[in-house]
Amino acid sequence: MIPAKEEVRRIINGLPEDSTFEDIQYHIYIRQKMDRGIKDIEAEHTISEDKFDARMSKWLEASSRIII
């Protein structure tokens, strides 16, 4: 695993010169989310596509009954 400082340097060096702080923060944020996802996959903290579909259908069904 690449040390965090080195990864941030790599991200910044890959961005255009006129990048804003917001651009830099966004790219670091996305990298963190990717790392978390990879760790979840490696630790088998995921669900199958079928389970996801079933949960989503149930959630959508329940949310459609909410009266605004």
Give an account of the 3D structure.
The protein is mainly alpha-helical and 68 residues long. It has helices at 4-13, 21-42, 49-64. The longest helix is centred in the middle third of the chain and has 22 residues, at 21-42. It starts with a helix and ends with a helix. The model has no long low-confidence stretch (mean pLDDT 93).
Descriptive keywords:
68 residues, elongated, mainly alpha, 3 helices, single chain
Q: Could you give the order of the helices and strands?
A: HHH
Structural class: mainly alpha
Helix content: over 70%
How would you classify the quaternary structure? single chain
CA radius of gyration:
19 Å
Q: How large a portion of the residues is in β-strands, by DSSP E?
A: under 5%
How are the elements arranged and paired?
Layout: H1 4-13, H2 21-42, H3 49-64
Brief summary:
With 68 residues, the chain is mostly helical. It contains 3 helices and no strands.
